[in-house]
Amino acid sequence: MYLWTTILCLLLGFLVYKLSKFYYQYYSLPPGPFPLPIIGNMLTILGDFRDNSFRKMTKKYGPIFTVYFGNTPQVFITDADIARQVFSKPEFAGRPHNYFATLLTNGITTSDYDNSLKAIRRVGLMATVKYSTNERLVNVAVDCVDKTVESMLKREGPDKPIKPADYIYLTFLNILANSSFNENYNIDDKEFIKLKYVFKDIDNEFVVNSFLNEYIKPLKWFDRKVYEKKSKAYNEMRELILKKFKTHYIDYNPDFERDLCDALIDAKNVAVRDGRQSATYLTDDRLAMCVFEMFFGGIKTSEITFQWILLLMAYYPEMQIRLKQEIESKIGNRLPGHQDRQQCPYVMAFIAETLRFRNVSPYALAHKSMVDSKIENYTIPKGMILYAYQGIILRNNLDTKYWTTANVDDFIPDRFIDTTDGTYRTTGFPAFIPFGVGRRQCLGESLAIAQLFLVLVRFIQSTQQYDIVLDSHQGLDADPNNSIVISPKNYTIVLKSKI
Fold first, then answer.
1. What are the tens digits of pLDDT across the range 331-360?
2. Of 86, 94, 184, 78, which is closest to residue 139 (Cα–Cα)?
3. Whole-prediction pTM value?
4. pLDDT for 438 beyond 60
5. Cα torsion for 39, 43, 44, 45, to the nearest 10°?
6. Which of 19, 320, 433, 440 has a CA that sits 20 to 30 A from residue 186's CA?
7. What is the mean pLDDT of residues 362-383?
8. Lowest mean pLDDT: which of 220-234, 418-432, 447-461?
9. SS3 letters across the chain
10. Is 274 exposed, middle or buried (0-12, 13-18, 19+ CB in 10 A)?
């Protein structure tokens, strides 16, 4: 009896200690909803579409607030000025070690901020910026769009409902595959189906929401086979891309840059030639991971953004007419080029407003504090997870210093058009951060913008004998079933013949 009493007292003491530590931390962090042990604020988050939940929180608690995912506190920042100040500092440039990080081991996206990461980021940025202005990208994008439109019309036919999602995915996958390895896929190709499955479809197989699995660990038991399957598929895909990368050395020519792999090899060779310290970090495995991460993140964000572009273009037919008129008058039937972005302000404004209005990654990737730090009057302990909630910053209807409250929830491309000379405004928007902010800002921004411009222009050129109309849709609200990205609900279009 004495033994059981002692054990019970020890258990109660341990629970009291854990609860005291848990709630002491809660009261020392930025304000937020009151968490419950084990589940934290999960009931609050999952009881509403997650983006709506966080918008309510910033309205109640201010631009810096804390949310508990299970027992894990996470700090969200919804003010552009604070986000720029915080995430420009190296002490907030780490990455948490989670399941996502295990899938992308040794990658740019998930590594902590150290000399190795700085070196690989510098090379990756150099390669993507360089390739984003390469004329070969124009030919690749045009060819991919033409083949996709041809496939849509051949398989579905004009004047008939078309579900565009898979075709859009095929377009951006082919652009990146061609840009990386000089390869093309058809919608029925086995390798395309495998790539799409690994990078997009496999998440549909989880029994329990993968978000819940990450923060309430016992739930992973229900999906253990799916996790094993996903990890195996990612490892196979990493090996496939590494193999494709290494074959580039066979016929690599420094005087002729064929694709992104060549650009990365060239950057590595320059670092070795100049005797830079960073050269030791530029291994083939890490460079191949750059390409892998472009497939992982670049395709998904670009193809979902274009899903929104196509939906908005069909939803607002008067804007579609304006886009077509500008392309017809400035470009005509010739191939679009990078220089045409200067001549097509409304096209660029339409893309920018889509990125603002329905930002695909509303809270982007998590940051981690590398040391004990301060944000305003709050102490942020080492290891704390933080987010720049760019979805709210881009569409903040609480603060008029960034966007006017009268139209922040409206889709208005003209907000990016200079009223004095009609040019596309690229500056003057401190809250326009669709690709993140600070030291971990997305490396692929320049490439993504170049791709979206070329795909949009060529898609309109390739369908000029049709009106793009909606056959069915569920409005412009985001799909509440997708907890990771802001994607449109399923919709169908019709390429309606003008004759």
1. 999 999 999 999 999 999 999 999 999 999
2. 184
3. 0.91
4. yes
5. 80
6. 320
7. 91
8. 220-234
9. CHHHHHHHHHHHHHHHHHHHHHHHHHHHCCCCCCCECCCECHHHHHCCCHHHHHHHHHHHHCCEEEEEECCEEEEEECCHHHHHHHHCCHHHCECCCCHHHHHCCCCCCCCCCCHHHHHHHHHHHHHHHHHHCCHHHHHHHHHHHHHHHHHHHHHCCCCCEECCHHHHHHHHHHHHHHHHHCCCCCCCCHHHHHHHHHHHHHHHHCCCCHHHHHHCHHHHHHHHHHHHHHHHHHHHHHHHHHHHHHHHHCCCCCCCCCCHHHHHHHHHHHHHHCCCHHHHHCCHHHHHHHHHHHHHHHHHHHHHHHHHHHHHHHHCHHHHHHHHHHHHHHCCCCCCCHHHHHCCHHHHHHHHHHHHHCCCCCCCCCEECCCCEEECCEEECCCCEEEECHHHHHCCCCCCCCCCCCCCCCCCHHHHECCCCCCECCCCCCCCCCCCCHHHCCCCHHHHHHHHHHHHHHHHHHCCCEEEEEEECCCCCECCCCCCCCCECCCEEEEEECC
10. exposed
- In 3D space, the residue among 425, 430, 424, 376 whose CA is nearest the CA of residue 399 turns out to be 430
Write the pLDDT tens digit of every residue in 130-187. 888 888 889 999 999 999 999 999 999 899 999 999 899 889 988 888 888 777 888 7
Question: 221, exposed or middle or buried, with CB in 10 Å at 0-12, 13-18, 19+?
Answer: exposed
Contact 117, 427 (CB under 8 A): no
pLDDT: which is higher, 393 or 282: 393
HSE-CB for 485 with a 13 A CA cutoff: 18
